[in-house]
């Protein structure tokens, strides 16, 4: 096993994954309809306009967060040549999430969307834009990050096989004694039986409360270091030290959540989204296409390459 940490020397090469990609991007909403081919949660698609075949990312939103509020992040990632499918929330799902402290429904909806991707995604996008179903990543933020881990652990079976998993500040529950069902954290090192590479992006302020009135959005004991502790290699781990749990969503929601929900950072939210998006791109290039140049540059000297401070940065390889 190899452990990489930040190097004080300059990287051998610079990374362009933090710059906007070369593809123009299209966005599309797919509402729930009476058609049996449409999954229950409404879908938000972001994809390149140019003709080609592109890897796919199934992205699961956080608790009561609109799937479209990740639009800026999705557009950045899609500009590098990725198709993003983000299931939303029905009113019934929203009410169930508020009343029932569980992520079981989120995992089931994610599996339904995964099956839709394998059977119907091509019908929802232009004919000359094709999904590469051999290269599909599973990702999620907050509660959606926890749901993504649960789906990767096989809590619900899907017809789609995932090649990589990315947790964006995942949250397992309110505290260690009130973890969301299905409970996946067991506080045992390298306990996750997940047969794919994993990347974790945490926030340094996620476990801070808001204005002394609200509990942390990503409480200690249920947040990113505890997910990382249970991951087996190969795993990458990045912490946006000066940013909060919602600082990667669109600006209007960062502002709103900072007023009422959770602590936000004082840096550029555009840079935070660039950092998260760039890590997505670098990690997926490494593990989908055997091109680890960008990922190596980030790991060897993150604060010479990334637009924000990343500390710690770890890369465990078997």
> How are helices and strands ordered from N to C?
EEEEHEHHEHEEHEHHHHE
The CA-CA distance between the termini, in Å, is: 4 Å
| Portion of residues within helices | 25-40%
Supply Rg: 18 Å
The percent range for strand residues is: 15-25%
Task: Supply the CATH class.
Answer: Alpha Beta
Helix and strand composition category: alpha/beta
Looking at the structure, the CATH topology is: Rossmann fold
CATH H-tier superfamily: Alpha/Beta hydrolase fold, catalytic domain
CATH architecture: 3-Layer(aba) Sandwich
Largest sheet report: 10 strands, mixed
Low-confidence stretches: 1-13
Q: What's the tally of helices?
A: 9
Q: How many beta strands in the DSSP annotation? A: 10
pLDDT averaged over residues: 89
Q: What strand order characterises the main sheet?
A: 1-10-9-8-7-6-4-5-3-2
Total domains: 1
Structural shape: globular
Structure description:
This protein is of the alpha/beta class and 318 residues long. The chain has a single domain (2-317), classed as Alpha/Beta hydrolase fold, catalytic domain (Rossmann fold). Helices cover 31% and strands 21% of the residues. The protein has helices at residues 71-78, 91-99, 104-124, 143-152, 224-229, 251-260, 269-289, 293-300, 302-305, and strands at residues 2-4, 25-30, 43-48, 52-60, 83-87, 129-141, 164-168, 198-203, 235-240, 310-317. A ten-stranded mixed beta sheet has the order 1-10-9-8-7-6-4-5-3-2, with helices on both faces. Helix 1 crosses helix 7, helix 3 crosses helix 4 and helix 7 (269-289) packs across helix 8. The protein is globular, with a radius of gyration of 18 Å. The termini are close together. The model is unreliable at 1-13 (pLDDT under 50).
């Amino acid at each position: 096993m190899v452990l990489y940490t930040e190097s004080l020397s300059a990287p051998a090469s610079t990374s362009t994954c933090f710059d906007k990609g070369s593809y123009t991007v299209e966005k599309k909403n797919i509402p729930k309809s009476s058609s049996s081919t449409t999954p229950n949660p409404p879908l938000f698609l972001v994809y390149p306009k140019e003709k080609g075949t592109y890897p796919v990312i199934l992205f699961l939103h956080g608790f009561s967060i609109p799937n479209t509020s990740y639009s800026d992040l999705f557009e950045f990632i899609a500009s590098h040549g990725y198709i993003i499918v983000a299931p939303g929330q029905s009113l019934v799902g929203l009410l169930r999430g508020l009343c029932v402290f569980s992520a079981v429904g989120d995992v089931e909806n994610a599996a339904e969307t995964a099956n839709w991707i394998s059977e119907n995604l091509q019908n929802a996008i232009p004919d000359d834009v094709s999904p590469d179903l051999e290269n599909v990543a599973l990702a999620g933020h907050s509660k959606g990050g926890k749901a993504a881990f649960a789906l990767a652990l096989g809590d619900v079976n899907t017809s789609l096989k995932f090649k990589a998993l990315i947790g964006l500040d995942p949250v397992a529950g309110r505290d260690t004694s009130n973890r969301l069902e299905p409970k996946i954290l067991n506080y045992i090192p390298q306990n996750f039986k997940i047969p794919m590479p994993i990347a974790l992006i945490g926030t340094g302020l996620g476990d801070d409360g808001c204005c002394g009135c609200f509990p942390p959005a990503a409480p200690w004991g249920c947040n990113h270091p505890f997910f990382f502790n249970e991951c087996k290699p190969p795993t990458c781990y990045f912490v946006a030290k000066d940013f909060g749990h919602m600082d990667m969503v669109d600006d209007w929601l960062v502002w709103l959540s900072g007023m009422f929900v959770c602590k936000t950072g004082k840096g550029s939210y555009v840079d935070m989204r660039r950092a998260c998006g760039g890590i997505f791109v670098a990690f997926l290039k490494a593990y989908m296409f055997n091109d680890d140049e960008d990922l190596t540059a980030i790991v060897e000297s993150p604060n010479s390459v990334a637009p924000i401070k990343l500390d710690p940065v770890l890369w465990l390889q078997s």
